[in-house]
Design a protein that fits this description.
This protein has 752 residues and is mainly α. It contains 31 helices and no strands. The chain is flat.
C-alpha cells in the first residue's frame, strides 16, 4: 500500500519551523552556501505548494456552484417544516388540556372510591364490634371469635382513624374502636384461658380442642401455645410408683423410656393439630416446654441411678485399678489386679448396659424430634450439605431443631454421664477382659492350625463393647472411645502377645538339658502366638465390616452424623497395621533364631560334588541320579518340617517368602562359581525347573516363580547358542531383565 504524500502546506510548515541561522552571523563561504541552499529549497517547496493549490481551484468552484443550486430546495423544506411544527404544537396543547382534565377526574373518582371503601370498612367495624359484644353477652365464643377476627382483619389506619373514632362509638360503648377491640380481645383471652384450664384438668378432649382452636383466630397464638404446652406437660408427667424395684437393671431405663415415649406420642399426635391452626413450625415452642419436663425427669432419674448403683464407689475402685483409663499410657510391671479390690466385671457390664440403654433412648428420642420438627426439604438440604462437609456436626450446619436439643439440659446430662462414667468404665471393662483372656488362654491342638482362645474371646467381647458403644447414640463418644479402644487393642492385646513372644525368644536355648525338646516346645509356642496375631488381623477386618453392615448401629444417629459414625468404625482397622508390624517382626525373629543358621549350608550341601561340565555319558548319568532335586527336597522338608501344618496360610506364606529371600541370593552367587558345558547348562535348567515345580507344589499361593526370575534368566543365558551375540540378544529379546548387561556377559562367560 502506497504511503500518501503529505500536502505542501505541511511541508511548508515543517520548513518554516526548522531553525534558521541569521545571515549576519555567517563567517565563511561554506556556511553562506549552505544557508543559501536552504532558502532555495524552501522557495521551491513554496512554489510547488502554490501550484498545487491553483490546480485544484476548478474542482472547488464546481462544488460551490452545486451548493448554490441546492439553496432553493432547502428553503422550501424549511418552510414546510415550520408549518408542520405550528400544527403539531397546537394539537399538543389541546391534548395536554384534555389529559389534565381526565387525570383530575380520575383522581376525584379514586378519592370517592376510597371514601366509599372507608365508609364500608368503618360500618363493618362498627357492626363487628356490636355483634362481638352481643356474642360475649350470650357466651357464644365461636361467634365472638369470628366477629373479633373480622374486626382485626381491617387495616389499622381504619380502626384508629378519626372517622372511625367519630362514628363507631355509641352511647353504650363510648370508647374508641381500637380500645374497644383490644378490651374485647383481652376479655376473650381471659375467658378462653380459664375455660381451657378447666377443660384440661377435667380431661375434656372436646372442650380442650374447642378453646385451643380459638386462640390464634384473635391474635393470641403465643398465649394459646403456652396454655397448650402446660396442658401436654401435665399429660406426660412420669411419677414412679413407690413399690417399684429400683434394683432392677431395667428400672431406670424403663422410666426414661416411658417419658420419651409419652412425649413422642404427644408430638406425633398433636403436631398436625397445632400446625393446622397455628402454622408450620409452631410446635417447636411446645416441644421446648416438653423438653423442660424431660430435663427435670432425666436429672432426677440419673441422680437416683447414681445413688442406687453406687457409681461414685465404682469409679473410685476402677481409678486405683491397673486397668483404669489413667494408667493406659503408663508403664506398670503387672496387669494382674487384686481380685478382692477390683470391681466385679459382671456388675460393671450391667452398669454399662444401663448407661447405653438410657443414652440410647435419649438419642432415639432426639432423632425423632429433629426429624419430626424439620420440614422434609430442610432435612434433605441439611443432609446434602453435611455430606460435603468434613465436620457434619459443625455449628454452621446445625438446624434450629438440632441446636434446641443440643442445648437442652438432658443432652448435657447424658453427655456428662458418657464422659465421666461410661468411657472410664467401658475402658476398664475391656482391659480387664483382655487381661483375663491372656491369663486364661488355652490352645486346642486338635484343630489345625492351632490357635489359642485369646483372639476369639477378645474380639467377641470387643464386638459386644463396640455394639454397646454404638447403641449409646453419641457421635462424640463413639469417636473418642474408638481412639482409646484402638490404643487398648494395640497396647494390651497385641502388646500382650508381643511380650509372650519376647519371653519365648529369650527362653530358646536357655535350657541346657534336652535342648532339642526345649527348641521344639519354644517353636510350638511361637507358631501358636504368631497364628494368634494372624487370626487377629482377619478378626479385626471382619469386625469392621460387620459393624458397618449393622443397621441398628446407625439408626440412632441423625443423617448428618452417620458418615461420622462410619468413619469412626472404619478407623478401627487402623490397628491392623500395628498387628501386622508385630507379626512381621515376630516372624523375622523366629526365622533368624530357628532357621537362618540351618539355611547357610543348604545350597553348598545341595551342590556338593556336582559339576555342570558334562558330556553325553555324564549328562545321562546326572539325569538318572537327579541329585540336586533329591538333595534340595530332602533338606527343604527337614527345614520346613512342622511349619506347614501348624502355621496359618498367611504365616506360612510369610515364612516361605523369608526362606526364599534368604536362600536365593547365596544361590545365585554359588551358581556363578560353576562352569557349564552345553549339556551342563541344559541339565542346570532341568534342575532349576524341577526345584521350582517342587516348591510350587508345597504352597497354594502363586508367587513362587516370581522369586526365581533372576535364576531363570541365568539359565536362559547359559543355554544360548555359542555363536549368538549376548548384547544383541539382551537388547532385542523383549525379556524384562532383572540382570544388567554386565551380569549377563559374565554369566555367558561361564560356558566352556
Amino acid at each position: 500500500m502506497a504511503v500518501p504524500k503529505p500536502p505542501a502546506s505541511d511541508e511548508l510548515t515543517a520548513a518554516t519551523q526548522a531553525p534558521r541561522r541569521d545571515p549576519r552571523h555567517l563567517t565563511n563561504l561554506g556556511e553562506i552556501l549552505s544557508c543559501l541552499s536552504s532558502y532555495q529549497s524552501e522557495e521551491a517547496e513554496l512554489s510547488a505548494s502554490l501550484t498545487e493549490l491553483l490546480s485544484d481551484r476548478d474542482s472547488i468552484t464546481e462544488s460551490l456552484q452545486l451548493l448554490q443550486s441546492l439553496i432553493p430546495s432547502l428553503d422550501d423544506l424549511h418552510g414546510e417544516s415550520s408549518h408542520l411544527v405550528d400544527k403539531v404544537s397546537s394539537t399538543a396543547h389541546t391534548a395536554e388540556r384534555v389529559g389534565g382534565r381526565v387525570k383530575s377526574l380520575d383522581q376525584e373518582m379514586g378519592r370517592i372510591s376510597q371514601a366509599v371503601d372507608r365508609v364500608g370498612q368503618v360500618m363493618e367495624l362498627k357492626s363487628s364490634l356490636m355483634q362481638l359484644q352481643a356474642s360475649i353477652d350470650t357466651q357464644d365464643w365461636e361467634s365472638a371469635t369470628r366477629y373479633c377476627a373480622r374486626a382485626m382483619s381491617l387495616p389499622p389506619q381504619v380502626i384508629s382513624g378519626p372517622f372511625a373514632e367519630a362514628v363507631v362509638p355509641t352511647a353504650e360503648n363510648h370508647l374508641p374502636p381500637s380500645q374497644t377491640l383490644q378490651t374485647a380481645r383481652e376479655q376473650l383471652l381471659s375467658i378462653f384461658l380459664k375455660n381451657f384450664a378447666h377443660a384440661s384438668r377435667s380431661r375434656d378432649a372436646a372442650a380442650t380442642s374447642r378453646y385451643f382452636k380459638l386462640f390464634p383466630l384473635i391474635g393470641w397464638e403465643t398465649e394459646g401455645l403456652e396454655a397448650y404446652a402446660s396442658f401436654v406437660v401435665d399429660l406426660v408427667r412420669v411419677r414412679a410408683p413407690t413399690s417399684a424395684n429400683t434394683a432392677s437393671p431395667l428400672y431406670h431405663v424403663t422410666v426414661l423410656t416411658a417419658l420419651f415415649e409419652n412425649v413422642a406420642m404427644i408430638v406425633d399426635q398433636h403436631q398436625p393439630v397445632v400446625e393446622k391452626y397455628y402454622g408450620k413450625g409452631k410446635m417447636q415452642s411446645v416441644v421446648e416446654r416438653l423438653l423442660e419436663e424431660c430435663d427435670r425427669v432425666v436429672r432426677s432419674t440419673l441422680s437416683n441411678w447414681r445413688e442406687d448403683r453406687a457409681i461414685g464407689k465404682k469409679l473410685s475402685a476402677i481409678g486405683s485399678s491397673p486397668f483404669s483409663l489413667n494408667t493406659l499410657r503408663k508403664q506398670h510391671s503387672s496387669n494382674i489386679a487384686n481380685e478382692d479390690d477390683s470391681p466385679n466385671p459382671r456388675e460393671i457390664d450391667k452398669v454399662l448396659s444401663e448407661i447405653a440403654g438410657m443414652c440410647g433412648r435419649w438419642s432415639l428420642f432426639r432423632k425423632f424430634l429433629v426429624e419430626q420438627l424439620q420440614h422434609k426439604e430442610l432435612s434433605e438440604d441439611l443432609a446434602e450439605v453435611s455430606a460435603k462437609n468434613e465436620d457434619p456436626g459443625s455449628p454452621t450446619q446445625l438446624s434450629e431443631q438440632v441446636r434446641l436439643l443440643e442445648n437442652s439440659y438432658s443432652q448435657k446430662d447424658f453427655d456428662e454421664l458418657l464422659s465421666s462414667c461410661y468411657i472410664p468404665l467401658e475402658i476398664w471393662y475391656i482391659r480387664a477382659i483382655i487381661e483375663k483372656a491372656h491369663r486364661l488362654s488355652t490352645c486346642d491342638f486338635s484343630q489345625a492350625p492351632p490357635v489359642t482362645t485369646t483372639p476369639d474371646d477378645v474380639f467377641y467381647m470387643l464386638k459386644t463393647v463396640y455394639t454397646r458403644l454404638l447403641s449409646a447414640g453419641s457421635l462424640k463418644t463413639v469417636e473418642s472411645t474408638t481412639t482409646i479402644l484402638k490404643e487398648v487393642m494395640e497396647r494390651d492385646y497385641a502388646g500382650g502377645i508381643k511380650n509372650k513372644l519376647d519371653d519365648t525368644y529369650r527362653n530358646i536355648g536357655s535350657s541346657s538339658a534336652r535342648p532339642e525338646r526345649s527348641e521344639r516346645e519354644s517353636r510350638s509356642s511361637l507358631v501358636i502366638l504368631l497364628n494368634d496375631l494372624d487370626v487377629s488381623l482377619s478378626h479385626m477386618d471382619r469386625l469392621t465390616k460387620d459393624l458397618l453392615a449393622y443397621p441398628a448401629g446407625i439408626q440412632l444417629y441423625l443423617d448428618a452424623e452417620q458418615q461420622g459414625i462410619k468413619s469412626a468404625i472404619m478407623s478401627l482397622s487402623g490397628s491392623i497395621a500395628k498387628f501386622a508390624a508385630i507379626l512381621k517382626s515376630g516372624m523375622e525373629q523366629m526365622f533368624n533364631q530357628l532357621m537362618r543358621a540351618k539355611m547357610r549350608t543348604l545350597i553348598p550341601d545341595v551342590y556338593k560334588d556336582v559339576s555342570y561340565v558334562l558330556d553325553e555319558n555324564s549328562y545321562a548319568n546326572a539325569e538318572h541320579q537327579d541329585v540336586v532335586r533329591k538333595r534340595f527336597t530332602k533338606f527343604w522338608e527337614g527345614l520346613a518340617d512342622g511349619y506347614k501344618d501348624t502355621f496359618t496360610e498367611n504365616n506360612y506364606r510369610m515364612l516361605f517368602g523369608l526362606a526364599l529371600d534368604t536362600l536365593l541370593r547365596p544361590w545365585e552367587k554359588h551358581i556363578l562359581t560353576f562352569h557349564f558345558s552345553e549339556l551342563g547348562a541344559v541339565h542346570f535348567d532341568r534342575d532349576l525347573r524341577s526345584i521350582i515345580a517342587y516348591l510350587s507344589s508345597q504352597t497354594t499361593f502363586g508367587d513362587i516363580r516370581d522369586k526365581f526370575v533372576r535364576l531363570q534368566q541365568i539359565s536362559l543365558l547359559l543355554n544360548l547358542d555359542n555363536g549368538e551375540d549376548v548384547e544383541a540378544f539382551y537388547n532385542g529379546s523383549g525379556v524384562p531383565w532383572r540382570l544388567n548387561i554386565q551380569e549377563a556377559k559374565s554369566i555367558v562367560g561361564l560356558k566352556v
